[in-house]
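User: Show me a protein chain along with its predicted structure.
Assistant: Here is one chain, sequence first, then structure tokens.
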Amino acid sequence: MENRSHSAVPEFVLQGLSQSWEIQLFFSVVLLLFYIILLPGNILIIVTILKNPSLESPMFFFLANLAFLDIIYSFVTHPKLIFNIFSGCRTISYSGCISQIFFIHFLGGAEMFLLIAMAVDRYVAICYPLHYATVVTRVTCWAMIVASWLGGFIHSIIQVILIIPLPFCGPNELDNFFCDITQIIRLACTNTYTLEFLTFASSGLMSIACFIFLLMSYGALLLKVRTGSTIGKSKASSTCITHIIIVFIMFGPAIYIYCHPFQEYSFDKVVAFFHTVVFPLMNPVIYTLRNKEIQAAMWRLLKNIKFID
């Protein structure tokens, strides 16, 4: 088939979360509530960590970066979804669609690699506590942060490179509320079997590999903590369990979405909603709820700025 111009399909139609306007309105209200409650909460987490000298450890440095990533991530699909629901508009331009795909995979990939960096930090802290201060320095932390962003960028560029050459000349309806590579490649006017396999390899298998690596790492750390000395055992165990919760929240839906690109299920949109909309806003909050140090620091900050008596 001869290569055709992308201008043949200048925009895509997003079918949304449901054909029922009432259901879409319900989801938009839920989304607004998450925005109102959790988005300022993530900002507060970053400010608390930056303002409090007692929270200068690498663990909190990584947590602030996680919150920052999730704040940016919340502006990739959320505003367009809310706008489409309330305006009745269901279209997204070709360039807007490609941009969504780029930033979803860029920020999602960066967050996956950041979770690996946090696992490395916990490994050194638990297994080599005497060398922790000299190994995990501020320079090392920044190097891991840069590597996380670079890894996410490379992963995202691969997804975009796979899509850009595709000719779109026929159907332009996406059965979703945002653009993603698993949806858009099905609309191409060419055989996409090889491309779908590459998508599975670059997103699905990568998610599975990271998921297994992190679970094995934290499982080994938990075993070492429980069989080691009692000093700091409770705090270290709580930190590892918190990380495991985030790993399941982060990778579970991603594995579900990207490990079956060849088929489409009715449950996909529900999983995608929680994966791209709800969970990113919750990740730093879960860390905060399970960490007494940052809770105390947040209350002190709120008192100092007279938000509470």
